[in-house]
Amino acid sequence: MSxxxxxxxxxxxxxxxxxxxxxxxxxxxxVVGLVVVLAFVLIALxxxxxxxxxxxxxxxxxxRKPPSAEHWFGTDENGRDVLSRVIWGARASLMAGVVSVLxxxxxxxxxxxxxGLAGGWVDALLSRIADAMLSVPFLILAIALAAFxxxxxENAMLAIAITASPVFVRLARGMALDAKSxxxxxxxxxxxxxxxxxxxxxxxxxxxxxxxxxxxxxIAEAIIAEASLSFLGLGxxxxxxxxxxxxxxxxxxLDPAPWLAIAPGVAIFVVVLAFNLMGDGLRDALDPRADRK
Length: 293
Known about the structure:
Elements: H1 5-12, H2 16-26, H3 28-45, H4 47-50, H5 82-118, H6 120-134, H7 138-149, H8 153-180, H9 183-190, H10 195-231, H11 243-250, H12 259-286
Helix pairs in contact: 2-12, 3-5, 3-12, 5-6, 5-8, 5-10, 5-12, 6-8, 7-8, 8-10, 10-11, 10-12, 11-12
Domain ABC transmembrane type-1: 90-279
Organism: Falsiroseomonas bella
Family: Belongs to the binding-protein-dependent transport system permease family.
């Protein structure tokens, strides 16, 4: 056996999960993304203890103060500490991103499995609905749903979840159609297993890897959507801090107080980039073709 074949032989003895983890941590940019995401999650969880000021406390004596040793990111038009509001705003943005995507998965995956395994008019109906929703730009549909539901962070998360669900419908449907013709699914049907058991035992485990990738990338898109809805007044409501609503308030003071827009804007950019880097790393780590490279 050649020297180059020995590592490959050893690698084939690894479990799929261990091999995927090793490939992920070999992806340097993905690891950077993971570290950044974990840092922001930690910041959001520890916000009550690490924020230097109350994020909604106003002070007329410190209106629009530039960054200083006392206020690292300056203060806003109401005298509130911008750093504290960015820290607390991480809670709203990350929660909206994660909860919205979990909601989209909860809606989309069962419907996709139903469409793929049932076939016939059920598949045709659900596929047409998903295609119709995907034909409308994501953000426009989310804005329309949020406006219909009313301005609130909970309604914004529901609107984003509904808007993002067709992607997971198509993902689950495709995997169900692939598994439908396999020997083990045919055997399960021949043994009289109900469709729900076939979906849970034989189809759902195969969806997990692409679901992790798509879910991670969808969180980045959901964070942008939440920021956009909050910017338009359809998400987190004042005085509660949100990166999107902070950008909305900052647009009136871009010339005299640019720091008001820089801090939340950079936070959105960094978090979204980190989730995208993680998603790319997960895609490479979970791709079976990577074993043959």
